[in-house]
Amino acid sequence: MSIFTILLGGDLVATPRLVRHVSGSRVIAADSGIRHAPSLGLVPELWMGDFDSVSPEQRDGFAGIPVEVFPADKDKTDGELAIDTALARGATRLVLAGAFGGPRADHAFLHLALALSLAEQGVEILLSSGTQEGIPLLPGVSHFDYPAGTLFSVIGFTDLDSLTLDGVKWPLAQRHVPFGSSLTLSNAARGPFTAELGSGRAMLIAHVGEY
Questions:
Q1: H or E stretch including 39?
Q2: pLDDT tens digits for range 6-28
Q3: Between 78-88 and 105-120, two packed helices, what is the crossing angle to 10 degrees?
Q4: Model pTM?
Q5: How is domain 3-130 classified at the architecture level of CATH?
Q6: CATH no., domain 137-207
Q7: Strand (E) positions, 129-168?
Q8: What are the residues facing 165 on neighbouring strands?
Q9: DSSP β-bridge partners for residue 47
Q10: How confident is the model over 143-185, as pLDDT tens digits?
């Protein structure tokens, strides 16, 4: 498995859990996402983007990192370009660090949708801010190792058919969840748990805290 961390411009807390996720991975920074590299102990092999969110001081501070510059007027975000580059370099698992929050809600929503699309293509993917994690939920059985008490939600991007949640505070059995329903918000793990989905697309968002 070839693991790449993509440093994005959203919020990030360098928790021990996130540091473990990215340890030993190859790293590509997208524009202002470079600022997360020191706190995670990472040195990107490439820094790319249009650099419209980077100060001259930041450019000087990371002067030794290879740079690929794109025009501001382009058809893809800096983050998507970085992901494309990682896949071209052989990535089979991606950690999108800094995927949530930040000044651009539109970018954060795009990361969720893009992660689902990549998961459908067979790419293993984790989105993280350090304190929150997102994992695509597609048809089939998924296993989660969160400790008891971890708050999580399942956000449907479509109608969800035959959704089963086992090992959680509020279990479900073969439940139909309409698109836009809040039924699957604010559940809690009892320990390691499973989610089984008959059809549909969803994202599991877990609030992992700062451990």
A1: helix 37-40
A2: 999 999 999 999 999 999 999 99
A3: 30
A4: 0.93
A5: 3-Layer(aba) Sandwich (3.40)
A6: 2.60.120.320
A7: 132-137, 140-144, 151-156, 160-168
A8: 172, 195
A9: 29, 67
A10: 999 999 999 999 999 999 999 999 999 999 999 999 999 999 9
